[in-house]
Specification:
216 residues; seven-stranded mixed β-sheet; 33% helix; globular
Length: 216
């Protein structure tokens, strides 16, 4: 399949079904709020190395967590019962994103350009973050894009044991109460699989995406 070049003068993307086997669909364009919202609303997201051309992806199989299916192990339940971490929603977003970047220094897609773009998305009300605090210090957290009843996970971090897990569990409890369709994990990791993540087909993902986006 060809990889399509985007124009900065148009917000249009090629159909996600035209992505190659690995999910690469297009390159170029920009990270404007309008383009990012259009991308996520169609199951497309940016992921590329700092300093390189913007790459846009839409994998054929989607790795998701259904909020009500978040897996909490016995050991994790004990940790939660004793947990003294504070959880805050939509606080210190810039710090959470910057820490995700710092802890992956040399192996991260989070560039200055990405930070600027997602801060703009946050200011526009389309990003949700969860922070875990210990003695008022940020020790874990995550963030993602929110459109309608869909959460598109972007990154997470932890500097003390289990902080990111606790943040994810709290996120899923909130999303479950609000009847969100899914947490789109974008890519598989063993950590997320243990927390309840699983693959669904593109057709099932597209169906859920359409339902979730319509609930804006």
């Amino acid at each position: 399949m060809p990889v399509y070049k985007l124009s900065k003068d148009s917000m249009l993307f090629p159909p996600p079904a035209l992505a190659d086997y690995d999910g690469l669909l297009a390159y170029g364009g920009d990270l404007s709020v309008e383009r990012l919202l259009n991308a996520y609303s169609n199951g497309i997201f940016p992921w590329y190395n700092p300093g390189e051309e913007i790459l846009w992806w839409s994998p054929r199989e989607r790795f998701v967590i259904f909020p009500k299916e978040i897996h909490i192990s016995r050991s994790m339940k004990k940790i939660l019962s004793k947990n003294d971490l504070q959880i805050k929603i939509n606080k210190d977003f810039s710090q959470i994103m910057a820490t995700c970047r710092k802890l992956r220094e040399g192996q991260t897609w989070i560039s200055d350009e990405m930070q600027e773009a997602y801060n703009a998305l946050f200011d526009a009300g389309y990003v949700m973050c969860v922070g875990a605090y210990e003695n008022d210090a940020l020790v874990g957290g995550l963030y993602g894009v929110v459109i309608g009843k869909c959460f598109f996970g972007e990154s997470m971090f932890s500097t003390v044991p289990n902080a990111s897990k606790i943040a994810l569990i709290r996120l899923c409890r909130i999303l479950s109460e609000k009847k969100f369709a899914f947490v789109d994990c974008q890519f598989h990791t063993p950590h997320l699989e243990k927390m309840g993540g699983r693959y669904i087909s593109w057709n099932e993902y597209r169906r859920l995406l359409r339902i979730g986006i319509e609930k804006i």
